[in-house]
TrEMBL record:
It comes from the Bacteria. Pfam families: cNMP_binding (PF00027). InterPro entries: cNMP-bd_dom (IPR000595), cNMP-bd_dom_sf (IPR018490), RmlC-like_jellyroll (IPR014710). It comes from Aureibacillus halotolerans. This is CRP-like cAMP-binding protein. Keywords: Activator. Residues 25-67 form the Cyclic nucleotide-binding domain.
Length: 202
């Protein structure tokens, strides 16, 4: 893992590009942010959090893909979410209340992440109030989109869920193994294959 103190230039540029893309800070504020925010590079398959552990960090994806999943009573992995570029990865209940997480988090690709904690979060917000506004706005947007997606999926047919994926997150089809994608969509890999074939023929 590469932290902010020893981060390589590509990671440094990713952070600076993201900040400048979404907000305007003074040179002093930008310098403070760059010095304080921790950026880490994780190889594919790195486990960030195991089911049953207490989450002590939150993440923001600058580059890469994070998979959220749990293992059910039968021992099967159930994929519940994927977080990609410019999405926050926060298991609120575990992180804020220090309770065991019902999910695991793992890197589905080589990933560059902003890594935060309750302590650094509070300190940064006190120093740079505008950063809190930006952070909360991004988290709220992601959370709202996630809630809408889950609500729509409840009444949707398997084919509707696949079509919604094509419309909203088509890149996951190339980035994620089919068995994980099928689990995420709430169907078997065989059903997903049939639906993909049928949709591609229309």
């Amino acid at each position: 893992m590469t932290t902010n103190a020893e981060q390589d230039m590509p990671s440094h540029r990713l952070l600076k590009h993201f900040i400048e893309k979404h907000a305007v800070f003074s040179e002093t504020e930008l310098s403070a942010i760059m010095e304080t925010i921790q950026v880490a590079t994780y190889p594919k398959h790195t486990t960030l959090l195991k089911q049953g552990e207490i989450s002590t960090a939150c993440y923001f994806v600058l580059k890469g893909l994070i998979r959220q999943y749990s293992i059910n009573a039968e021992g099967r992995e159930m994929t519940s979410n994927f977080y990609k570029e410019e999405q926050a990865v926060v298991l609120f209940n575990s992180f804020k209340t220090k309770t065991e997480s019902p999910y695991s988090l793992t890197c589905a690709e080589d990933s560059v992440l902003i890594v935060g904690s309750l302590e650094t979060e509070s300190s940064m917000y006190e120093t740079i109030p505008a950063l809190e506004k930006l952070t909360r706005s991004m988290v709220e947007q992601n959370f709202g989109a996630e809630q809408d997606e889950r609500a729509n999926a409840v009444s949707a047919t398997p084919e509707d869920r696949y079509r919604a994926l094509l419309a909203q997150k088509a890149d996951l089809i190339e980035r994620v193994p089919q068995h994980q994608l099928a689990s995420y969509l709430g169907m078997t890999p065989e059903s997903l294959s049939r639906i993909k074939k049928r949709v591609n023929q229309t």
